[in-house]
Amino acid sequence: MAQICELVELPLRHPQLFKCIGVKPPKGILLFGPPGSGKTLIARAVANENGAFFFLINGPEIMSKLAGESESNLRKAFEEAEKNAPSIIFIDEIDSIAPKREKTHGEVERRIVSQLLTLMDGLKSRAHVIVMGATNRPNSIDPALRRFGRFDREIDIGVPVEVGRLEVLRIHTKNMKLSEDVDLERISKYIHGYVGADLAALCTEAALQCIREKMDVIDLEDDTIDAEILNSMAVTNEHFHTALGTSNPSALRETVMPNCSWEDIGGLENVKRELQETVQYPVEHPEKFEKFGMSPSKGVLFYGPPGCGKTLLAKAIANECQANFISVKGPELLTIWFGESEDSVHEIFDKARQSAPCVLFFDELDSIATQRGSSVGDAGGAADRVLNQLLTEMDGMNAKKTVFIIGATNRPDIIDPALLWPGRLDQLIYIPLPDEDSRHQIFKACLRKSPLSKDVDLRALAKYTQGFSGADITEICQRACKYAIRENIEKFSQIVTHWHYARRSVSDADIRKYQAFAQTLQQSRGFGTEFRFADQPAGTAAASDPFASSAGGADEDDLPKVVILEQMSLWNVWMISEIVFVSTLLLCLFLYAAGHFTFCLYSDRNHVSLIQMDKNGYGAVAGGVSWLPEQLDDEPKAFCLWFLNGVVISSRASTGRAVDGALCRIGKCLDIAGEKSRTRTRNAM
């Protein structure tokens, strides 16, 4: 306000100051900001304080169907203002009558822009007329209007801070009947992103809540209301909290505010602690960071298996620190129109800055942040342009704006390394599968509102669900509830009977891959082109890991290190001939005996992979056989599993014995394959 008064009050009241110095006073001021921030109200207040004539021009009212009438209306407005000087001409929604001429398709808009430029240039320097414009889209205004001599100054009427919100609340509640428990200072602290219009709507909604409580004792058919009822009505603090639950900031009307908390997330205590230090502390204790001269981190990357609560964690931290939350699905940003995807990214970041403190959450980040140049068939490089815009917005984030960026992905290996540099998504947090204690807490969180039978042992369920993700455990609870509802029993005993029908969504192979991601990211902040998976920790039990060594005294270099680089499905090979697959295994065995590499088989639910390893202990999947239970009979499935049980080479120390056993198995497999081929031939004949 002080800047506006200086630019308006001095030229209108004391023009001799500018004449003495020999400069021209400013002619125009452009106010821009989100809708409802008070741009029109500020212009009226300035005119009223200075006793100036106020002439309001609404942009759409200038437009006319008749040729030349729009320009004539604009000229009349400026002539009227000069006659009643000192005066202020206020053009509301100026972007509707002065858009960029190169982007308009009609001649009327171009003529109006030209007329407005001529009128502003024709204003006498000492005519005591100030032109003020207001818009929430400053970048859509014609650039010729934004130069010196026309709209000299541009003032951002942003979202009010805590002190400003408190002053606005006091203005809107000065005529309201408030209860003694209403704490406006506390309310203003937790309504981030609210502009003046939002605060007025909040006060109105709180008053309506007070009226709704008295509707049961009010007779609407009577013309008068009992004075005792009117005297008992007062807006309380509870009414304001109820109104807050039904209202959002105008900038975030299309977004859904999260209502989950730490209680909804079982386990992950270390992750919660790190999120509190990264996101919650800068919001609640900014003075501590200023004291130590430290800039808080701006970005966090969640990575890990699907279904482990990455999205839920982002919502919970936003709710815990009372920050606004904007969720962006990666594929939603990509469009077929050139340049529109980049504009969408800019608008999202601009909205987050206006709603600060805000948590900006990018789900499925790998869909828009893959390594540049790796997109095949990307017409025009749209994905690369979106990533470049994303990096630019992250680098241009104002340090004073408390906007935190959280990305979530289950494919960290394809994320562009530039996104993980310091100052961007520099905090890398691995979200693992829950351990037994975490699974127990997840069961408790999922079932805290459900009636449980006394014989339900959640600790036993947590023990039996080794390798299950949080989403899998939630599915177990939902299935048990469905069975209980189906049988119309208000207890939870069915969960013990039916929990085992749920299938894991994350395989053992995926678990090892994500553990390798986490181990690699601790050593390097980015991914190179030759990414390799690390080994399992030493001492892992062989029962839980098929690649663990059976020889405890072997040297660490002799233990095979499994590195899964690529899985190649041999489904088509299996359907053509089993001989091809078995011959591949036989060849690998002879190469193993010669010392070129080791190999082993690994079965993962409905996929069998052949992992070949070189002399250094690193290798790749040489092939695999996949089957679907509904597409194959039991014989091929049993064949794969039976062959797998005989051919698992886990240590160089058992080479001879393992090769002999494997050759014996291969001979039997060849007999089975030959018999199957003869059976097919007889059936065909």
Automatic annotation (TrEMBL):
Q: Name one GO cellular component term.
A: cytosol
SUPFAM superfamilies, per the entry: P-loop containing nucleoside triphosphate hydrolases
Entry-linked InterPro entries: AAA+_ATPase, AAA_ATPase_domain, AAA_lid_3, ATPase_AAA_core, ATPase_AAA_CS, P-loop_NTPase
Membrane-crossing residue ranges in chain numbering: 571-595
Molecular function (GO) terms for this protein are:
ATP binding; ATP hydrolysis activity; polyubiquitin modification-dependent protein binding
Matching SMART domains, A to Z? Answer: AAA
Q: Where is the AAA+ ATPase domain?
A: 25-161, 296-435
Keywords, in A-Z order = ATP-binding, Membrane, Nucleotide-binding, Transmembrane, Transmembrane helix
Q: What is this protein called?
A: AAA+ ATPase domain-containing protein
- Look up and give the organism this protein is from: Salvia splendens (Scarlet sage)
